[in-house]
Design a protein that fits this description.
By secondary structure, the chain is mostly helical. Helices cover 98% and strands 0% of the residues. The protein is built from 1 helix and no strands. It has one helix at residues 2-94. The termini are far apart.
Length: 95
């Protein structure tokens, strides 16, 4: 009879260890799932921020190019005006 109780005790300990390992494993799986969901949420947030930043960058770049074109045209216009004035002065001096 003592062997039976000894065997029953050993099996009970093994069952408790198995249950503890099972619960520990389930807890790890739940934590990993939560961490994965948080990670995916962070990736989505960062992707949205990246898209917004890229859009702002493109808008700013377009604005810069437009301003460069405007300044180039203004510079050409100013240079043409000054060249015309110089031609007029030279024509007047020759006359």
């Amino acid at each position: 009879m003592e062997t039976f109780y000894f065997t029953l005790g050993i099996l009970s300990i093994i069952a408790i260890i198995f249950i503890v390992a099972l619960v520990w494993g389930l807890v790890k799986v739940v934590r990993t799932k939560k961490d994965l969901e948080d990670f995916n949420r962070d990736i989505d947030f960062n992707q949205r921020r990246l898209d917004e930043t890229r859009r702002e960058f493109e808008i700013n770049l377009e604005h810069i190019y437009r301003r460069i074109d405007e300044l180039h045209q203004e510079s050409k216009s100013h240079t043409d005006k000054r060249a015309d004035q110089l031609r007029q002065i030279l024509t007047e001096l020759k006359s």
